[in-house]
Design a protein that fits this description.
4-stranded mixed β-sheet
Length: about 325
């Protein structure tokens, strides 16, 4: 039987500065009268990462965190069982994220689980089992450890909308892992330091579409091609960087960091799946320069010059941008 614990959190700190006791009993909170509720379902997907043939993640629990209008925590729902492909449930879910790229995804919470949420703003917190998570590199049989700070991934806000529903086996919401941004090798020796998985570059997407396209042979002949995706009002295209990472050095650039990036396949195609509806810029870079995902490298984007396009994404549709 599935177990979902709903924990009512105190929103105000008492005048004496005390916190709520860890011994408080779990309280099941009934839905508010007049507030429309949504049936919640969730899947996993990712954008590929360079040089890896497997990025395996074991999720122990997922906490669904309801936020107040001011951004404080109002309520938490703990999900302890997950949907398996054969229709059964399990107490943890193990996924090779590279098996679910682009617009593909793996359902882990089915609508039939009966999780109903009030409409509003939420966050997700994933508890990761480090011992069951690893990276396997190309031409290397070693399984390198993935380390998640405090074994928890706290993801940014997303909106629950009662009009979003599961369609067949396609969940209403998807955790999209941009591994080129979020997966970081610490140091030059992965056997010693392993990899870090950060929440930076991981987001929860509801109503979404796809950006896809092809690259001309003329551009492919210039070297490895990468497509970067930016907000629609971007005027200065930056390469990958994370100025909030403890290893970041130098001044924070004025250029805009990409929302996501993906390497073009040898056949000359690319795809961004689970892109929130809205306006975007996509830009191409074709050369063999390495883009560090922490440091700002000052790479020329687009390269060749002029290889950028404005594009609008609508829910349920594929928007095409060819270079």
């Amino acid at each position: 039987m599935k177990t979902y614990l709903v924990i009512l959190l105190m929103l105000l700190i008492s005048a004496c500065g005390g916190n709520s006791s860890s011994n408080d009993k779990d309280v099941v909170v009934p839905p508010l009268m007049g507030v429309e509720q949504a049936k919640f379902s969730l899947g996993l997907s990712d954008a590929p990462v360079d040089d890896a043939i497997a990025v395996v993640l074991e999720i122990d629990t997922i906490k669904i965190i309801k936020l107040t209008d001011s951004g404080d925590v109002a309520e938490e729902i703990l999900v302890e069982e997950f949907a398996m492909e054969d229709g059964s449930t399990a107490s943890s879910v193990v996924t090779n994220l590279l098996d679910y790229q682009g617009a593909d995804q793996k359902k882990i919470i089915d609508e039939l689980a009966g999780i109903e949420l009030d409409e509003g703003n939420y966050q997700l917190e994933l508890v990761i089992i480090d011992a069951g998570s690893y990276v396997e590199l190309d031409n290397d049989a070693t399984l390198y450890a993935i380390k998640v700070p405090s074994s928890r991934l706290r993801l940014g806000e997303f909106v629950v909308d009662a009009s979003l529903v599961q369609v067949g086996d396609t969940p209403a919401y998807t955790i999209e892992f941009d591994l080129r941004t979020s997966l970081v090798q610490r140091g030059n020796n992965p056997a010693k330091n392993g990899f870090i998985l950060k929440p930076h570059g991981i987001k929860v997407v509801g109503r979404s579409g796809t950006i896809a396209g092809t690259i001309s042979s003329e551009n492919l002949n210039l070297g490895t091609c990468t497509v970067y995706m930016y907000p629609g009002d971007t005027t200065e295209f930056g390469d990958l960087f994370d100025s909030e990472d403890e290893a970041f050095t130098g001044d924070v650039p004025t250029a805009t960091a990409p929302l996501a990036s993906t390497v073009v396949t040898i056949e000359g195609s690319y795809e961004f799946g689970f892109v929130s509806a809205g306006d975007y810029m996509v830009a191409l870079r074709c050369n063999d320069l390495v883009d560090d995902n922490i440091q700002f490298d000052g790479l020329e984007i687009p390269s060749p010059a002029g290889q950028s396009k404005f594009i609008t994404v609508t829910s349920g549709n594929t928007s095409e941008a060819n270079f």
